[in-house]
Amino acid sequence: MSLDMNISSAKTSYNVLTYGARPDGKTDSTQAFQDAWAAACGSTDSTMIYVPKGRYLLGAVAFTGGKCKSPAITIRIDGTLIAPEDYRILGRARNWLSFERVSGVSIVGGALDAKGSPLWDCKATRSNCPAGATTLSFVNSNNIRIDGLLSLNSQMYHVVINGCQNVKVQGVRVIAAGDSPNTDGIHVQLSTDVVITNTSIKTGDDCISIGPGTKNLWIERVRCGPGHGISIGSLAKTTEEPGVQNVTVKSTIFSGTTNGFRIKSWARQSTGFVRAIRFIGATMINVRNPIIIDQNYCPHNLNCPNQVSGVQISDVMYQSIRGTSATPVAIKFDCSLKYPCTGIRLQDVNLTYSNKQARSTCTNAIGKTSGQVQPDNCL
């Protein structure tokens, strides 16, 4: 459905100003947004909640479906939603703006400024900081659109898609400092039929992270950097875990990131798996680990399980990937001793290290190459 159709077909419009929102950036408009949502929900028409230009102060707010009568709610944002100055207010909530059990919700335009940097500073210097809030979360929802949104300086994750079906994310921009902790750009888990396109992510953690139970995920035309790349995992956080399957990532650019395409699992027993993954058409610019599978994932070497990973990785293709590695090892496959990676395919890969040949390392990885592959393959 086109943007215009989404907006023009919204028959009944609810302006947040009518419900007492103030575009001054100082007056708490949380209740006004909740009231506008309740009104839109209560209509049997397709509806639009309209947020005019201006800055709107919002605390943590949950928009819940369940009893919604409206088949489609478009939230058109021409302004900026801003979080409270005191990071502890949001920091104690799990989410800033959350949508739970909704269907047919579209968010069009707008900026979300979570003012996360004081919390990042706290985490860098002290130990008694709150965990922080995800900026925008969709849980157990379906037929969702996020179009043209800007997410700034989230405390934790910027956007989370959890337990959802049929989600389209397009034209989104994510911006946070390269050293901001746990600020994943878009996190997807337990969700089916998700599409992410034409999106630019600059952040301090994974640009896109793909968690357990993700199926039929399509990512195309994404720019990432700074950040930690596009990651499947981390998996095997628990022993009972659904797998990740049918993920395609096309036409991406990674610039100055720690990783390009990463699959990571903890070294412990798990029912998880990764299969039918396609990484096609990527440019790597000074990326530390352009292609990496790490089945001994344990950041900072704290509380490592020191077992073997039970996650079975198979049928992973890397095709038409070129550019520069920031380290001598451009391709690293560190797979499980118990369940080696199988069906790994490298096709037309050209990665160099400071104008020299890069290296590849393989442990417990089985696969084949076709076309020209540099560095020389170790499969």
Automatic annotation (TrEMBL):
The active site is at H228. SMART domains: PbH1. Pfam families: Glyco_hydro_28. The keyword Cell wall biogenesis/degradation applies. SUPFAM superfamilies: Pectin lyase-like (SSF51126). InterPro entries: Glyco_hydro_28, PbH1, Pectin_lyas_fold, Pectin_lyase_fold/virulence. It is found in: Secreted, Cell wall. Keywords: Cell wall, Cell wall biogenesis/degradation, Glycosidase, Hydrolase, Secreted. Its main location: secreted. One of its GO terms (molecular function) is polygalacturonase activity. One of its GO terms (biological process) is carbohydrate metabolic process. Belongs to the glycosyl hydrolase 28 family. This is Pectate lyase superfamily protein domain-containing protein.
